[in-house]
Write a structure and sequence with these properties.
Glutaredoxin, four-stranded mixed beta sheet, 7% strand, 4 strands, globular, alpha+beta
Length: 214
């Protein structure tokens, strides 16, 4: 049996393949003082559902993304080291987080293993080292359990139902806030939720498309 996402609660969606998810979690002390539930999803599942092209398929965008992630890390004073190859298969790391309850300390340690130490969690040796760091000797068994696989699938389905299209994404007051650079907006809307009900926000939210095929 899987647990559905409780959309009445503040949520934070992430995938370990995302450097910006790492950078945002490293700023956890700046988040609104609310009990965000850390919710792992597969970014590729979101892309597939919404028909989005994977950013890393566009060579110039891929280069810019890596440079911008490094720039943001240096700007924020966050240790940052790219893993040996990217994108990588984050499935093992995500499933491990699911199996371990996606607790903050666990999720942060997995992110740091990948993005601070520059390790690959998808390789056999890398995953074994990650499990050793987390003191989880039965990691391979945990990620192969049907309940773990089913929970991750449920997370992805529920996230899509909420409209989640990328990571990192906050869900707060029934609204989505996407991207590491959306943190100031999250903080503002946590303090001033009625801003989203303002006349201009409502106007641009309901703008029609100017393209016939959109």
């Amino acid at each position: 049996m899987t647990d559905g996402i409780d959309a009445r609660q503040p949520l934070w969606f992430y995938d370990f393949v995302s450097p910006f998810s790492y950078l945002l979690l490293e700023q956890h002390d700046k988040w609104p003082e609310l009990p965000f539930t850390l919710t792992p999803v597969r970014l590729n599942d979101l892309y597939r559902h919404w028909g989005q092209r994977v950013a890393y398929d566009v060579p110039a965008k891929r280069i810019f993304t890596y440079r911008y992630a490094l720039f943001r890390a240096e700007q924020l004073g966050i240790p940052f080291r790219m893993p040996p190859a990217h994108p990588f298969d984050s499935s093992k790391a995500i499933l491990l987080a699911v199996a371990l309850g996606s607790e903050l300390t666990t999720v942060r340690e997995i992110f740091r293993f990948i993005w601070r130490d520059g390790r690959d969690p998808s390789s056999a040796d890398g995953f074994a080292d990650l499990c050793e760091r987390l003191k989880v000797p039965d990691g391979l068994e945990l990620i192969e359990r049907e309940s773990t696989l089913a929970q991750l699938s449920r997370n992805c389905a529920d996230a899509i139902a909420l409209g989640v299209f990328g990571v990192p994404t906050f869900w707060l007051n029934n609204q989505l806030f996407w991207g590491e650079d959306a943190l100031p907006m999250v903080l503002y809307c946590a303090r001033t939720p009625n801003w989203l009900d303002s006349k201009e926000v409502k106007r641009i939210t309901s703008l029609p498309s100017g393209l016939a095929n959109a």
